[in-house]
Design brief:
The complex is a heterotrimer of chains A (about 260), B (about 240) and C (about 625).
Chain A (H helix, E strand, L loop, with lengths): L9 E12 L2 E12 L3 E5 L6 H8 L7 E6 L2 E2 L5 H6 L2 E4 L11 H12 L15 H11 L14 H12 L6 E5 L7 H18 L2 E5 L3 H7 L2 E6 L2 E6 L1 H5 L2 H8 L11
Helix pairs in contact in A: 3-4, 3-5, 4-5
Chain B lengths: L7 E12 L2 E12 L3 E5 L6 H9 L6 E6 L2 E2 L5 H6 L2 E4 L11 H8 L12 H7 L1 H4 L11 H13 L5 E5 L7 H16 L3 E6 L2 H7 L2 E6 L2 E7 H6 L1 H8 L2
Parallel strand pairs in B: 3-8, 3-9, 6-7, 7-8
Antiparallel strand pairs in B: 1-2, 1-4, 4-5, 9-10
Helix pairs in contact in B: 3-6, 7-8
Chain C lengths: L1 H14 L6 H19 L3 H30 L4 H23 L15 E4 L2 E4 H23 L1 H11 L1 H6 L4 H22 L1 H4 L5 H16 L4 H21 L4 H15 L28 H23 L6 H24 L10 H18 L3 H23 L4 H20 L2 H8 L31 H24 L1 H11 L1 H6 L4 H27 L9 H14 L6 H16 L5 H15 L5 H12 L4 H5 L1
Antiparallel strand pairs in C: 1-2
C-alpha cells in the first residue's frame, strides 16, 4: 500500500435494491455507489428504509430484488459472517461491546475471530494478538485505558473502542449506524474527525446514518436522502441542504439544527 | 386551580441514586413551577433519565426529598405517584407493540382530575391528527415518530397536571422534532407543567423557560434558558458545544 | 393438558416468572378435588361443584404464594425466582405426603357420565367427551377476558412492559395477584377434572410440569392460543400413539417438539424473546490471572485431598471410611456443578436439565457393564462420551434459544430422558416385539424404578483408596482443564456471546456453534461426574436424572455465585454436606424447601456472592479494586 496515493475506486455498488414487508415497500429500487475514502451519509425520516437498507448490505436481510457488490464482487445472499470476512466493519447506534472484558480483550476477540482462532481451547486468550490489538487501540487513542473493563467506560470512549473493533478485520467498508448518537456536541465532532482521518489513511469507504444534521453537514462528502423507501435526493451537502423537497419532508424549517430559533 | 401559577409543583432536594453499586445521582436538586417548561440538559449517562425515573418512582433514591404539589413522594409506588397527576413519557417510547393504538390509549386512561385539562380521544386526535387514522393499528407497526406521538397521547389519557418527558427527540427526524416542539408548546398553553430531559440544545431553546445542566450526576448550572442560550462559556464548559 | 399449560403460559407471560410450583398446583388440584368429590361428589352437581371449588381453592393458594413470596422477589434476578418456586415444590410435596399419605389415590367415576358413547364404531367414554368440550370453552372464555375487558388489556400491556404500566398509574400488584389466581386455578382445575381418569399421586407434579413445559414451548411462551393448539396436537398424538406403541407418548412428544422447534424456534405462535433486559445488575469483572495467594490455596486444598487417605491409614479413627466416601461424593458434585457453571456462567445458558447428562453418563456406563460385560476402564470412559453424545443431540435444539426458553427446553429434554429410563422404554419396545429371555419373562433394560445394580470398579481400582485417588485425581484434572478452556479464546468467545450477541455476530462469530460445542463439552464433564458417581455407589437409579437432581446442581452454582469460577466449587461442597445432614430427617424436603425460600427472601442479591466479597477482602484473595468497583 502506498499510503499517500488514493485512487477512488468503488467499494460498494448497490443497484435497484428492493424489499417489502407485508406489502409495504420498505426499500424501493435504491441505487448508489460508494467510493473508497468517502463518507456517504444516509438520512431520512424514521421508517424511510435506512435500517432496512443497512441490513441488506450487511447480509442480515435478503433483498427481494437488486444487486449488492463489494469491491466488484456480488455479496448477495451471503450470511453476515461471510460479508464481515470480506471486509465490512460495523458500529452500532447503541454501543455493543463485551462489558465483562477489558478494552484490549474486546479488540483481541475481534482479531481472534478474524484469524479463525475462536475455538482454540488451550493457550490463554490474553496472549493472542496482543500487539496487534494495542496498535489498533493506539490509533483510536484508547491505548492508555487498555486494561479497564468496557462495562465501566465512559460512553464516548466506548465509541472509540467500537471503532477499533470494527477495524480488526481490515475493512474496506465501514457501516456506522448513528455513530454519534448520545454524545455531547464536541465529542461528536472529535469522533467524526478521527473516523475521517482513519478512513483516509486506510482508504476505507463509510456509509453512515445520522440524525444530527450538524455532524452530517460537517463530515459527509455526499448525502443521500431516503423517504418511504425511495431515494429522493443525492449529492454534496450544500445541494441537498437547499433541496426544497428534502426541507419539506425531512429537514423542516432548520429550527432544530440551525442556529436561528423560529 | 388549587396551586397558583408560578408556585412550585415539583421539587427535588438532594437526591442520591444508585444503580447496583455505581452512584448515578449525587445531591440533585431542582424545581418545576406551575405552567413552566423546564429542561434538564446533559449527555448520555449524565443522569438525566435516572433523575426522571426517580421522580416517577422507577428508581428508588437512597437519599433526598421528592415532593409533588406539596406532598412527599417518599415510599410511594410508581402507580401511586402517577395517580397524583404526574405523567411520564419514557425515553425510547415503550409503546405496547402488541396492542392497538386504541388499546394503548386505554392502558393510560385514568379518571379526570379537577385541576388538570381533561383528555379524550377526540381532543387527542386534534392534537395528533396522524393517530386518528390508525385506531386499530398495532403499536409495533408504527414509525418512530408516530410512536412518539402515541406515547405522549397515552400519558395524556391519565389527565396529568405535570408531565415528565424523557428525551422525546432521540432518534427522530428534524421535522418530527419540530412537531414535538410544537406539541410541547401546545401543552404548555393548556396549563401543563413540563420537565423535559434533552440533549438537543436547539429543541430545548425553542420550548423551555428554564434549564438545568446535569453532569456526572450533579446539577452544574441552573438558569433561564435565554441566559444559557446567550452564554457561550457555560455551554462550552458543560455541554461541550 | 391445555388447562395446565395455559395457566403456566399466562403466569409466565405477565410476571416473567417461570412458576415451577405450577405442577404442584396441578397435584393439589387433584388431591383437593379428590377429597371434595369423596365428600360431596355423589351427584352430578356435587361432582362439578367439587371440581370448581378445588380450582378456586388452588387459585387461592396461588394468591397466597404470590403475596407471601413472589411479591418480594419480582426485582430479584430471574434465577432466584425459579429457585424460590422450586422451594415451594418441595414444601408442597411433603405437605401432600403428610395430608394424603403416600398411597396413590384412585378417583371415583364422574356421576352421570359413567357410560361410553360409540363414535365411528369405537367406544369413547362420555367423560372424555365432556373433557374435550371443556378446553374450547375455557379458551373462548380466556380470549374474551383478555381481549374485551379493561383488565385483560392491562394484563396484556403488563406482559410486555410492566414498569410502564405501573408508571401509567395502574396498580400492577392486583394485576399480578389476579393473574396468579387465574393461572393457579386453571392448574387446579386441570388436576381436579382428571381425577376420574388418573386419580392423584405424588409424582404428578413433576410429570405434568415436563408435559406442560413441552406444550408451552411448542405453543410459544406466553401465547394462550399457542398452548391450546399444541395441547390439541399432543392430545391427538396421544390417542393414536398409545395404539401404536404403548409408553411411547413421551417419545412422540419429543419428536413433535423437535420438528416444531427446527422450523419455529420460538414455538408455533411464539414471538422472539425481547432482548435488552437480559442483564440485571452490574456486569462482572474481567478475568484476571489468579493471584499467587489463590494459587497457593488451590495447591493446598489439592495437597490436603491427596493426603487424606494417608491420614486414613495412619489415624483410622480420625479419618474414617465415611470421610473418604463423603469427599468422593463432594468431588463428584463439585465436578457436576463446575460443568454446569461452564455453560451457565460464561455461556449465559442456564440449563434446568443437566441431570440428563449426569444420569445419562452413568446409565451409559452401567448398561455397557451389564449387557456387554465391558471392562471397567472402557465402561468408565463411555460415560463422558455417551453424555457428550446426548448433549450433542439435545444441544442442537437448545442452543438456538436463550434465557428462559433455553431453560425450559433443557428441562423438557431431561424429563424425557428420565421417562425413557424410568419407564424402561427400550425394554417395553422389546416387549412389544415379543422378544424375551429363555424363560419367557420380558427383558428389562434400564431396570425402571429398580435401577441397575452391582456395578463396581474392577481389579486395581476396586479398593476404596485406589478409587478415591481416581475420583479426586480426575475431578481436579477436569476442573483444571475447564479453567484452561475458559481462559482460552473459546471461553472468551462464549462470554462475548453472553455480553453482546449483537457485537459477537458483527465480528463474525458463529455463536450457535460455539454454544453447541460448549454444551457438548459440559455434557462430557457432567458425564464424567456421573461415571464417578456410578462406580462409587455400585448402582444407578432413575433418580440420577430427576429434575430434583438438576436443581441440586443449579442450586450449587447459584449458592456459590455464578460470576466466579470458584463459586460452583464452594457451593457444591457446601450443599452436598448440607444434604447429607438433612437427609436423615423425615420430611427433609420440607426443611430444604423452607431453607431455600428463606435464603432467597433474606439474601435476594446472592448468597455467597455477598459473603464472598467480605471474606475475600479479609483473606486478600481478591484484588482490592475488584471488590470496591
Amino acid at each position: 500500500m502506498s499510503g499517500a496515493q488514493h485512487e477512488c475506486v468503488p467499494v460498494l455498488e448497490v443497484e435497484s435494491l428492493s424489499r417489502s414487508f407485508g406489502g409495504v415497500r420498505a426499500v424501493d429500487r435504491v441505487s448508489f455507489t460508494l467510493f473508497s475514502s468517502e463518507l456517504l451519509a444516509m438520512i431520512g425520516p424514521n421508517g424511510a428504509g435506512k435500517t432496512t437498507c443497512f441490513n441488506m448490505v450487511n447480509g442480515q436481510l435478503r433483498p427481494d430484488a437488486g444487486a449488492v457488490r463489494l469491491n466488484g464482487r456480488s455479496i448477495l445472499g451471503l450470511p453476515p459472517r461471510s460479508i464481515w470476512r470480506l471486509g465490512v466493519g460495523r458500529t452500532f447506534q447503541i454501543t455493543a461491546t463485551f462489558a465483562s472484558m477489558t478494552v484490549r480483550e474486546n479488540v483481541q476477540m475481534a482479531l481472534v475471530s478474524y484469524h479463525r482462532r475462536s475455538r482454540a481451547l488451550w493457550r490463554p486468550a490474553r496472549d493472542h494478538y496482543f500487539d496487534e490489538a494495542m496498535t489498533l487501540l493506539e490509533r483510536v487513542g484508547m491505548d492508555r485505558q487498555y486494561d479497564r473493563a468496557c462495562g465501566v467506560l465512559a460512553y464516548g470512549d466506548l465509541k472509540r473502542v467500537e471503532l477499533a473493533v470494527a477495524l480488526a478485520n481490515e475493512p474496506r467498508l465501514l457501516l456506522m449506524d448513528e455513530p454519534t448518537a448520545g454524545m455531547a456536541p464536541r465529542e461528536r465532532m472529535e469522533l467524526m474527525q478521527l473516523t475521517t482521518e482513519i478512513v483516509h489513511e486506510r482508504n476505507i469507504g463509510v456509509l453512515f446514518t445520522e440524525h444530527d444534521m450538524d455532524v452530517v453537514f460537517a463530515y459527509a462528502d455526499r448525502i443521500m436522502v431516503l423517504d418511504r423507501g425511495q431515494l429522493i435526493s443525492e449529492g454534496p451537502p450544500m445541494a441537498v441542504r437547499s433541496d426544497r423537497k428534502v426541507q419539506e419532508i425531512y429537514l423542516g424549517g432548520s429550527a432544530v439544527y440551525g442556529t436561528e430559533p423560529a | 386551580m388549587t396551586v397558583p401559577a408560578g408556585a412550585p409543583v415539583l421539587g427535588l432536594t438532594g437526591i442520591d441514586a444508585f444503580y447496583g453499586r455505581a452512584q448515578i445521582l449525587s445531591g440533585v436538586s431542582l424545581e418545576v413551577r406551575r405552567g413552566e417548561v423546564v429542561t434538564l440538559l446533559g449527555r448520555n449517562g449524565a443522569g438525566k433519565s435516572t433523575t426522571i425515573k426517580s421522580i416517577i418512582g422507577l428508581v428508588r433514591p437512597t437519599k433526598g426529598e421528592l415532593s409533588f404539589e406539596g406532598k412527599s413522594l417518599r415510599g410511594l409506588e410508581p402507580f401511586q405517584i402517577s395517580r397524583l397527576g404526574l405523567g411520564y413519557v419514557p425515553e425510547d417510547r415503550r409503546v405496547f407493540t402488541g396492542l392497538t393504538v386504541a388499546e394503548n390509549l386505554e392502558v393510560g386512561r385514568q379518571p379526570r382530575r379537577e385541576n388538570a385539562p381533561e383528555w379524550n380521544h377526540e381532543k387527542l386526535f386534534a392534537l395528533f391528527p396522524n393517530l386518528a387514522t390508525m385506531n386499530d393499528r398495532l403499536g409495533g407497526l408504527m414509525s418512530g415518530g408516530e410512536q412518539q406521538m402515541l406515547t405522549i397521547a397515552r400519558t395524556l389519557m391519565g389527565n396529568p397536571t405535570t408531565i415528565l418527558l424523557d428525551e422525546p427527540s432521540e432518534g427522530l427526524a428534524p421535522v418530527i422534532v419540530e412537531q414535538v416542539a410544537k406539541t410541547i408548546l401546545d401543552l404548555k398553553a393548556q396549563g401543563l407543567s413540563i420537565l423535559l430531559s434533552e440533549q438537543n440544545l436547539h429543541l430545548s431553546t425553542l420550548v423551555s423557560d428554564r434549564a438545568y445542566i446535569i453532569e456526572k450526576g450533579s446539577i452544574r448550572y441552573e438558569g433561564l434558558m435565554a441566559d444559557l442560550a446567550g452564554n457561550e462559556e457555560i455551554r462550552g464548559a458543560y455541554l461541550m458545544v | 393438558m391445555f388447562l395446565v399449560a395455559s395457566g403456566l403460559s399466562i403466569i409466565f407471560g405477565v410476571t416473567r416468572i417461570v412458576n415451577f410450583a405450577h405442577g404442584s398446583f396441578y397435584m393439589l388440584g387433584a388431591y383437593i378435588g379428590y377429597t371434595l368429590v369423596q365428600a360431596i361428589g355423589s351427584t352430578a352437581i356435587g361432582f362439578w361443584a367439587a371440581v370448581l371449588i378445588a380450582a378456586v381453592a388452588v387459585g387461592a393458594i396461588g394468591v397466597v404464594m404470590e403475596i407471601l413470596l413472589l411479591r418480594r422477589i419480582y426485582r430479584a434476578p430471574e434465577l432466584f425466582q425459579l429457585i424460590a418456586t422450586f422451594g415451594v415444590i418441595l414444601v408442597i410435596q411433603d405437605v401432600a405426603l403428610w395430608v394424603w399419605g403416600s398411597e396413590d389415590l384412585v378417583g371415583p367415576q364422574a356421576p352421570g357420565l359413567k357410560g361410553a358413547t360409540s363414535i365411528l364404531g369405537k367406544p369413547i367414554p362420555e367423560y372424555d367427551l365432556a373433557l374435550i368440550a371443556i378446553s374450547p370453552l375455557v379458551l373462548v372464555g380466556l380470549w374474551a377476558l383478555f381481549k374485551l375487558t379493561r383488565w385483560g388489556t392491562l394484563v396484556r400491556a403488563a406482559t410486555q412492559d410492566r414498569q410502564m404500566v405501573a408508571a401509567l398509574g395502574v396498580n400492577q400488584r392486583w394485576l399480578f395477584t389476579g393473574v396468579l389466581f387465574l393461572g393457579s386455578a386453571l392448574a387446579g382445575l386441570g388436576g381436579a377434572v382428571q381425577i376420574p381418569k388418573g386419580g392423584a399421586d405424588l409424582l404428578m407434579d413433576f410429570n405434568i410440569l415436563a408435559v406442560a413445559f413441552v406444550v408451552v414451548v411448542v405453543g410459544g411462551m406466553g401465547s394462550i392460543f399457542g398452548a391450546f393448539w399444541a395441547a390439541v396436537l399432543f392430545g391427538i398424538l396421544q390417542t393414536f400413539g398409545i395404539q401404536i406403541l404403548p409408553n411411547s407418548t413421551l417419545v412422540l412428544m419429543f419428536l413433535v417438539m423437535a420438528v416444531v422447534l427446527i422450523f419455529r424456534p420460538w414455538g408455533l405462535l411464539g414471538m422472539p424473546e425481547t432482548l435488552g433486559q437480559a442483564h440485571p445488575g452490574p456486569p462482572e469483572q474481567p478475568l484476571r490471572p489468579a493471584l499467587p495467594r489463590v494459587r497457593a490455596l488451590g495447591g493446598a486444598v489439592t495437597a490436603l485431598l491427596l493426603a487424606l487417605p494417608i491420614g486414613h491409614l495412619v489415624f483410622p479413627e480420625l479419618v474414617g471410611v465415611f470421610t473418604l466416601v463423603l469427599v468422593i461424593e463432594i468431588m463428584v458434585f463439585v465436578l457436576f456443578a463446575a460443568a454446569l457453571h461452564f455453560i451457565m456462567g460464561p455461556g449465559g445458558m442456564v440449563s434446568f436439565g443437566h441431570a440428563a447428562y449426569f444420569g445419562g453418563g452413568a446409565y451409559a456406563a452401567a448398561l455397557l457393564v451389564k449387557f456387554a460385560d465391558a471392562p471397567f476402564e472402557l465402561a468408565f470412559w463411555s460415560a463422558p462420551v455417551g453424555a457428550a453424545l446426548l448433549a450433542f443431540l439435545f444441544g442442537w435444539f437448545c442452543v438456538r434459544l436463550s434465557g428462559v426458553y433455553f431453560a425450559m427446553l433443557t428441562l423438557a429434554f431431561a424429563q424425557i430422558a428420565w421417562a425413557f429410563v424410568f419407564q424402561d422404554m427400550p425394554g417395553s419396545v422389546l416387549k412389544t416385539f415379543g422378544i424375551a429371555d429363555e424363560f419367557g419373562t420380558p427383558l428389562k433394560i434400564t431396570g425402571g424404578d429398580d435401577g441397575l445394580n452391582d456395578i463396581w470398579p474392577s481389579g486395581w481400582a476396586s479398593t476404596r483408596i485406589a478409587y478415591y485417588y481416581i475420583a479426586v485425581g480426575l475431578s481436579v484434572a477436569a476442573l483444571w482443564i475447564m479453567r484452561r478452556f475458559l481462559y482460552a479464546p473459546f471461553g472468551y468467545t462464549l462470554r462475548a456471546g453472553r455480553d453482546s450477541p449483537l457485537r459477537a455476530a458483527a465480528i463474525g462469530i458463529d455463536l450457535t456453534r460455539h454454544r453447541w460445542l460448549a454444551f457438548t463439552l459440559s455434557g462430557a464433564f457432567t458425564g464424567l461426574a456421573g461415571a464417578l458417581f456410578l462406580f462409587s455407589k455400585g448402582s444407578v437409579f432413575p433418580t440420577t436424572l430427576e429434575i430434583a437432581r438438576s436443581f441440586d446442581a443449579l442450586l450449587m452454582v447459584l449458592l456459590g455465585g455464578v460470576q466466579s469460577l470458584f463459586g460452583p466449587i464452594v457451593g457444591a461442597a457446601a450443599l452436598t454436606w448440607l444434604n447429607d445432614l438433612f437427609s436423615v430427617l423425615s420430611y427433609w424436603r420440607f426443611l430444604l424447601g423452607v431453607t431455600i425460600i428463606a435464603l432467597v427472601l433474606l439474601l435476594p442479591q446472592g448468597i455467597v456472592g455477598f459473603a464472598g466479597t467480605r471474606l475475600g477482602r479479609r483473606l486478600q484473595l481478591a484484588r482490592p479494586e475488584e471488590i470496591t468497583a
